[in-house]
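Researcher: We plan to redesign the surface later, but first we want a full-length starting point. Tokens attached.
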């Protein structure tokens, strides 16, 4: 039995995956979950990781490391994304994780984050012709990876994330419609690298905002990865959910079936970013995947050539 783990420290949540490599080179999921710690809370204003989110995120990583070892993982790869790229005190966080959990956090570039996410998503898709864009929005940034006939043609990261948009426009509670419109325009202005591009044949969305939008669309009282995977979100559904969140306080949002309670403050901003990305690419819909960076890193770091998550 060969088991390995990946911990992805994001700006809004920490994602955790333990996989077992089968004899035929495929992967079996042993554990796969996320914990919302809001590491980037206050980061946009101060430029630093604040003490409370710093500590709760270190606690979450240490707990996941313990769980991975108890599950028999022989190695644990740990990566950090936009929040740790931006924070002036990210080295202190890296050192705290090393001391508490015995792990080395690798802070990856936006382009590397995009590449690994694309690998994770496409490893679970059948081979397809045409153009595809894999879009991920997180707490601190959004990633776009373009591919054609199975090959990556371009990838980049932009500083448009749910934590930033939430703080900038006060979207953590009920707001007027014009605040939402400003937030969508703000997100769209950060997507200027998408201007003038042809509409891709397929668009796949990943990350916590997308999987929560899918779960709310499906009214899932209990999260079901198999149901979420492959869910199509169209513009009308995204607009419906924007209005759903816009008209409610964070506490009232927590009562919405399918919404992870820890995302109540940032889900409106996430939905606004998704809406802006669809508009920027001229797409009427996207398909949601629960795969992402952690699956891509698992395949690349620990898998045999050609293995699929």
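Model: Full-length starting sequence:
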């Amino acid at each position: 039995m060969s088991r390995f783990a990946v911990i992805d420290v994001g700006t809004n949540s920490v994602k955790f995956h333990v996989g077992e490599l089968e004899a035929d080179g495929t992967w079996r999921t042993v554990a796969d979950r996320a914990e919302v710690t809001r590491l980037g809370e206050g980061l946009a204003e101060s430029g630093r990781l604040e003490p409370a989110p710093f500590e709760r995120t270190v606690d979450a990583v240490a707990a996941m490391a313990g769980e991975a070892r108890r599950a028999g993982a022989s190695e644990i790869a740990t990566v950090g994304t936009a929040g740790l790229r931006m924070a002036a005190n990210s080295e202190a966080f890296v050192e705290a994780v090393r001391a508490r959990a015995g792990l080395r956090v690798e802070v990856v570039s936006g382009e590397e984050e995009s590449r690994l996410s694309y690998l994770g998503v496409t490893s679970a898709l059948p081979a397809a012709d045409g153009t595809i864009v894999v879009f991920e929005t997180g707490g601190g940034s959004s990633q776009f990876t373009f591919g054609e006939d199975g090959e990556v043609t371009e990838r980049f990261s932009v500083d448009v994330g749910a934590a930033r948009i939430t703080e900038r426009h006060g979207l953590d509670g009920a707001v007027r419609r014009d605040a939402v419109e400003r937030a969508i325009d703000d997100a769209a202005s950060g997507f200027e690298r998408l201007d003038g591009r042809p509409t891709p044949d397929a668009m796949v969305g990943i990350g916590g905002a997308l999987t929560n939008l899918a779960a709310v669309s499906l009214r899932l009282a209990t999260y079901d990865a198999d149901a979420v995977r492959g869910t199509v979100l169209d513009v009308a559904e995204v607009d419906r959910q924007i209005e759903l969140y816009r008209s409610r306080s964070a506490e009232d949002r927590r009562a919405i079936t399918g919404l992870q309670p820890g995302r109540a403050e940032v889900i409106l901003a996430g939905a606004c970013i998704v809406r802006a990305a669809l508009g920027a690419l001229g797409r009427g819909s996207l398909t949601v995947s629960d795969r992402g960076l952690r699956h891509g890193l698992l395949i690349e770091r620990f898998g045999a050539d050609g293995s699929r998550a």
